[in-house]
Amino acid sequence: MSSQTTQLSELTDGSAPPQTKQQTNNETVVLTREQEKARKMRNYLIAATLLGFAALVFIVTIVRLGENVADRTF
Amino acid sequence: MPDQWGLATAADYFALLKPRVMSLVIFTGFVGMIVAPTQIHPAIGFAAILCLAVGAGAAGALNMWYEADLDAVMKRTAIRPLPMGRVARDEALTLGVALSIGSVVSMTFLVNLLAGILLAATILFYALVYTVWLKPRTAQNIVIGGAAGAFPPVIGWTAATGTLELAPWALFLIIFLWTPPHFWALALCRTKEYRAAGLPMMPVVAGSDSTRRQIVVYSVLLVAASLLPVWMGMASLFYAGVAVILGAVFVVLSVDLLRKGAIGDDLERVNDPLASSAVRAANKSAMLLFKFSLTYLFVLFASLLVGGI
User: Fold this and answer.
1) Cα–Cα distance measured from residue A22 to residue B250, given in angstroms and rounded to the nearest whole number
2) Cα separation, B153 vs B229, whole angstroms
3) Digitized pLDDT (tens) for each residue of chain B, 309 residues in all
């Protein structure tokens, strides 16, 4: 990688990298292998959470609909 | 630890939600839901418990975000994801706010409005009233702040019934009175850490002797409150028997803690080779009470559950 490339793991202050500055200098942010792996796992987790939440909303909706159908007056 | 940046795993974010506190919230909320007179559909009941757990976790994340600096100076909390640098403070705040809003909105639309309002009140009480206002200002922080941890059975009950009645407040009172002796038993052995962090916990402000006396008072009040469900007709005789036996043990352990240790001794000196045998005995007694208090609450609520099913 070029000297302008920033290794996130080399940051010393624990804060997020100054991306705006890097972008203007055409620098790229390169994640280490471990950081990429951790990000991938986080993304899978978010996807699973969203899918689970969608399923929960679907099931509760069906239950509520069922209750309302059972309670309706003809 | 900046070289931890970007390495946060699901476990780190989960740790932000204070899973051990969450498990207690889930259990007591579940009991409140089961002993309620109205049956709730299992799917909606599951949604209610999930919202309650996520809401409690969100409050925990907000607490960790606000207290990250304090956590870093205390041995017990220095291994949390924020002091370790595995999760950024902004991430913790975002997670806490997002889960708070998400859990309250979901509770409102999937379960009912009243349960959603109570959940919102609980999160705000824990994050703002306890964490921001009470904890750094008064020795009564855990007494008043304990109300946040006492809300789950009320929310569980409300999720099932859709109404706010008097009965679940008996369960609220049990957890409310259980919190001070439970927490102070541990705080007695962590006095030095709390003092270093500048937190006015009871043993720091009032000293070991006063704290131990107050533990006995709260223990007696707790035993009386634990019999309220029987008096209100929402618990079985089996529960009454369990409450009496467990309550007697709780009081005996509290009195034992009061009697052990010389006046003015710092129980945290237990690792000091020069510490007296009385200090060692008192420290052991405090940790025994702390561990028993966890068993106490679990078994007491479980026996309530046995009568409710």
Assistant:
1) 61
2) 13
3) 456 677 888 899 999 999 999 999 999 999 999 999 999 999 999 999 999 999 999 999 999 999 999 888 888 888 899 998 889 999 999 999 999 999 999 999 999 999 999 999 999 999 999 999 999 999 999 999 999 999 999 999 999 999 999 999 999 999 999 999 999 999 988 888 888 888 999 999 998 889 999 999 999 999 999 999 999 988 999 999 999 999 999 999 999 999 886 544 566 655 666 566 777 788 889 999 999 999 999 999 999 988 655
Query: A24 vs chain B: nearest CA distance in angstroms?
Result: 23
B217, β-bridge pairs: none
Residue type for position B17? L
- Point out the domain boundary residue: B126, B150, B165: B165
The answer to whether the CB atoms of A60 and B110 lie below 8 A apart is yes
Position B2 in a domain: no
Report the 10 Å Cβ neighbour count for B181: 28
> Is B85 in CB contact (< 8 Å) with chain A?
yes
Distance in Å, alpha carbon of A55 to nearest chain B alpha carbon:
11
> Based on the domain organization, do B180 and B248 belong to the same domain?
yes
Residue B52 maps to a domain = yes
Of B119, B146, B165, the one marking the end of a domain is B165
Give kind and range of the element (H or E) at residue B306: helix B277-308
How many whole angstroms separate alpha carbon B255 and alpha carbon B210? 13
Asked if the interface predicted TM-score (ipTM) of this complex is over 0.85, the answer is no
Whether residues B74 and B36 fall in one domain: yes
DSSP secondary structure code for residue B162 in this structure? S
